[in-house]
Amino acid sequence: MFQQQFTIGHGPFERCHTLSLPSIKSMQELKAGIAKVFSVSDCDSICFYNRRDVLTSLDDIEKCDAPVQIRVNGEIVREPSGPEPLPYVGNRYELYPDPLGNYDRLFDRYGPVIKTVNMGTTIYLTNDPDVSREVLREGQFFTKTTSDPSHPLYYMRNNEALFTCDSDAPAFRLAHKFIPPSLTPKAVRHYTPIVQACVDRSYKVFDELDDKELAFNVYQYTFKMAGEIIWKVILGMDLGHFDSIDSKPHETIRLLGEYLSLMKKTSLRGSWYGYLPFGTPKRLRLVRQLLWDGVAKGIEESMPPETSSDLPMKDAALNATCVADYLRRATDDNGEKLPEDIMLSNCVILVGAGFVTTSSLLAWLIYALVKYPGNQERLLQELVNNGAEAGKEWLYDELTEMPFLDKFVKETQRMHNPSFQTARNAKEDVVLPGGYFLPKGAVVIPTFPSIHKNAAHWDNPTRFDPDRWETEAAAFNITRFVTMATNTYATTSTHIGVNATTETTSSVTTQLSVFDLIPPRVYIKFIVYLPLQPKVTFQQAFAHLQAGLQGTLRQFPFLDGRIFPRDEREPGWRPGHIVVSYDPSGSGDRTNPPRQLVFKDLSEVLPDFEDLRDAGFEFSAFDDELVLSAPFVPDLSGGADVFLAQANFVNGGCILATGFHHSASDATGMVTAMRAWAEHCRNLGNPDSNVCDWLAPESFDRTLLERLWSKSPAKPVAEIPRDTWGFLGFQPPDAEDDPAEHAAPPPAPTRTMESSIFYISPENFNALKREVLSDGNDGSGLSANDALLALFWRALMKARYRAAIATGQSTPPDEVSYLESPVDGRTDFDPALPSSYAGNLVIVNKVPMPVVDLAAPTTSLRDVALKVRAQAAKVNPGLVKDAFTLMREVPDYTKLKHAFTRLDGFDVMITSVLLLPLDKINFGADIFDNDGKPESLRPLMDAFNANFRLCMVLPMKSHGGIELLVSLFADEMDQLLEDDEFAKFAAFCCH
C-alpha cells in the first residue's frame, strides 16, 4: 500500500492529507491524484519536496520520513499579495485614476497575481498567460457569474445574452448555439461590402475636414464610425453619422456610450451604491431601459417588407441582410429558433460589445500610424501592391491575405488592447500555476494589456514592432495574445478595412524545436503499396487521395508549411537556425488541389501490381526519382515543403510515394501524418465524423517542447555530463578536432551501395529471442529489439570486416564500430507531451564495440545485445531533458556532425521502426483493396546509399514477421550471404 503524508501551503493556508494510493504506478498518476485532493488546476505543475531536496521518483516519496511538501512550479502555495488596504476605501487610491498604469506597477512589485480591495470588493488580477489560460478555461474551477456583485460586469448582467449571462444560465446554451455562427469568417465575408459602403460614406466628411484644414478629435469620429458600421451589420440600418462633419451620433449610440460610462462609475463604488434611488444609479437604470427600447425599435424597423423564410443556421448567416435578420430566420437541426425575448438582449450586447471595442481600436490604429514611424509607408505600399485605387471594392480574401496589415493590427491590439474586464469566478478553492491559492468565489481578471506587455513573456514589449509576428516567437506569442475574450464573435465584423483579422491570421513563422535541428536536412522518402479495388480508375483513386489530403492540411496546417533559413537579422539568430512558415488557421486555398500531391501513370512503364508483389516489392524495380521527383537535399532559400507526395499508378494498384523534410518530423511523426491523411480519406463520406480525435491538437505545435521544458528548473549546462552529447549523435561542440578529420578526405566511391530485404519469420524471431534473452528473468533487462539490433549490427560488421580483409585493406586492431540507434524520447521528455507529437524527438543510443570483438566467433549475440542494453538503459527523463538543454545552448548548429554520414569506417545507423502502427494506416476500403491498408512499406534509398551507412528494421508484419533493410556494397553483401549465423534467422528476400 502506497501511503504518505502530503502537505501544501504554510501558515493559515497549510493543509495536510495522508493518502493511501495502492494503484499508483507513475509520478504522473500521483500528480493527477494530488491535483484532485488539493484542487491544483494544472497537475503537471506539481513537484514534491522533503525538508531540503526535490523528490523525483515514487521511491523517493515513499521513503520520505517527513510529510512531503507539495509545491507548484517550485513555489510554496500561498495567497497572492497586494498593497495593504486602507479602511473602507481599500486600495482605491493605489488603482485609480490610472488603473492600467497602476496594474503594471503593482505587478512589478507584488508578482504576476495580485490581490486588490476597492470599497469592500476584492478582485484578483493577473498578467501571467499561464494563470490566465487556467482562469479562462471554464470547467472544474472557474465559471463566469456576472450575477455576483463582485463581478465587474455586474451592472451589465443579463442572463439572456451570451456575453453578459452566467455560464450556467439556461439561456447560455441557446445563445451560444445561435450567436457565434452569425459572425463566422464566412459570414464576415458576406458583410464585407456593407462595411466598405459605410467607410465610403465617410470620405466626403474627411475630405471636407482636410479642405478646411480643421483639426478634429479622432475618437469622436471613430465613435461615430464604429456605431455606423455596427448598427448596419447588426440591425441593417444606416444612421447618417457621416451626412456632414457635424452630424451627431444616433440617440441609441449616445445612450450606449452613456450606459457604459455609468456602469463603470457604479461598479467602482461599494456594492451598496448601486441600490441608491437617486444620482448615478438611478440614471443607470433609466438609460438601460431607454437603450433596450432603442434597440427593440431598431429590430422592428429592420424587418424586411416581406416575410422571409426560415433557413438552417449555416445558410441563414450567408443570406441574411443583417445579424438581426439571421437571428429571426435561423433554425437548428431540430427546426428550433432563438426565442424573441433572448434575441433582443443579445442584439443589445452585440451592438454594445462590438461598438465600444471597435471605436477604441480604430482610434488606436490611427494613433499607431501617426506615432510609430515607417508603418504608414509600409501599409500604403502593401495596399498599392494589392491594387488599391479610387473606387476599388475590396474583397474579404484580399484583406485577410495582406501580411503587413495583419501584423500591424495584431501589434496595435497587443500594445493598446481595448478590453480588460474579462473576469471569471472561482467555483471552489483552487491553486493556480505559480502556487497562487484563490478561495471559492474569488473574482479574477486576466488584464490583457498587462499580459501583452509582460517582459517575462515578450521580447522588448514596449516597442511597437509588427514584424515580431513573423519571427520564431510568433506561434508562441499567439498563445499569450488575447484580443477580445469576452466578445470574440461580436467584434469581428467591425474592424472596417481590417475586419476579421482577429478571426483569421495570415501565415505564422516559427522557429523549429532544437530537436528538429538534429537530423540531416533531407527529405525522408518512402513508399507504400496500395492495391486498388476492381473497377476503381486511377483518376477516382487520385481524387480520393487529393480530397483526403486537402482535409488533412486544413486540420493540420503545419503540414502545408515551408521551411526556410532563419533571418540573420533577427534577435537570437545562430548559424543553422531554420523556421517553418504556415497559415495556422488552416484556411489555405480550398479551390485548388494541394500543391504537394502529384499524379503519375506508370502502367506502361512498370509491371502490374500483382507482379511487383510476387517479386517482394523489390528496390530494383525502379529508380527512386521515377516515383518521387524531389531533391534529396532541398534548397531552403526559397522554402522547402514540409511534405511532398506522388501517387504512381500501375495496373491493379497505387505506389504512393511521400517525402517528409526530416527537420519537420521523425519517423513517428511521419507515420502520424500518414495515418491522419488516411483517416481523412477514409471518412470523406462522413463529413460530420470526429476525424483524428486520437491526435492531440498540439501535436504539430513546435513551441510545445520549449514550454514543457521551461516548466521545471533545468540543470546548468556545466553540470550536464559531456557524454550526453553522444545521445544526440554528436561530439561536444568544444571537443578537440580529430587530426584525421583534417586529412585528405577518402576518394569518392566509384560504386554505390545497394539495398536488399531480408525476412525473419515469426518462428525465427522467437528462436532469436530465446537464444539472446534466455528466460527473460535474469535481470539483464534485454528486449526483443536489443536482440534484433545485436543480430543486425554484428552481421553488418562481420560482412564489412571480412570484405575489407578480402580486398587487402587493413583494419587496426583497436578500430571501434559505433552503432547509432534512434530511441523515441516522447515518453521520457514530459508526461504532458502527447504520444502523437509529430516533431523530432529522438535520442540516439550510441554503442561502441571493437570491430574485432564484433566479428569474433567467440562473441555471442547475447554479448552484443548486453552492450546495446547497457547504453540504452541510460536513457531516462533526466537525460532527455539534459539533451534538450544542451541543444538550446549550441552557438553554431552548422558545426554539429553526424557519425553515420560517411561510407568509410565501421559506423552504422540502424533505425528500428518495428513498432510503428502501419496497420492503422487505412485509406478506405471502397477505393483500395486489403481493407484500405498498405501491403508493404519501402524507404527510397538511392540517395542514402550514395552518402550514408543506414539500415532499417521495418514495421512488423500483421502476422509477426519482420523485414530488415540492408544496404551494403556488393562485396560486403556477398560476405553477408555467407554468414551462417545471420542465415539461421534471416532469409534473403529481394534486392
Q: How many DSSP-defined strands?
A: 31
**Secondary structural class:** alpha+beta
Number of helices: 34
- Principal-axis shape equals globular
**Span between termini:** 57 Å
Provide the spatial order of strands within the biggest beta sheet: 26-25-27-29-30-24-31
CATH architecture label of the largest domain: Orthogonal Bundle
Q: What portion of the residues fall into strands of 2 or more residues? A: 15-25%
Per the CATH scheme, the topology name of the largest domain is: Cytochrome p450
Largest sheet: 7 strands, mixed
Q: Overall pLDDT, averaged?
A: 86
Estimate the helix proportion, in percent: 25-40%
Q: Uncertain segments of ≥5 residues (pLDDT<50)? A: 483-506, 739-748
The CATH class of the largest domain is identified as Mainly Alpha
Task: Kindly give the count of domains.
Answer: 4
User: What is the name of the CATH superfamily of the largest domain?
Assistant: Cytochrome P450
Rg from Cα = 33 Å
